[in-house]
Amino acid sequence: MNVVTPVSQSTSHQPTRGLALFFCLLLCLLFLPARKQLAAVEPAWLKQSGGVLAKLNAVFFTDREHGWAAGSNGTLLATNDGGTHWQPLPLPGRTRKEPVLDLWAFAPDQVCLLGEYGLFNRSGEVAWHERVFVLRSEDRGASWLAARTAPPPLQPGQSIIIKQINKDTAKIEEPKPPPEPVLVRFAFVNARIGWAVGELGTIQFTRDGGQSWQLQFTQLRKLFNDVSALNEQQAWIVGGGGTILQTGDGGQSWQPQTAGNSANLLAVHFTDAKHGWAAGNNGTMLATTNGGLRWQTQITGTTRTLYDVFFVNTREGWAAGERGTLLHTTDGGATWQDNSLETHANLHRLFFLSPDCGWAVGGNGALFKYE
Question: Under a CB-based contact definition with an 8 Å cutoff, are residues 185 and 225 in contact?
Answer without folding.
Answer: yes
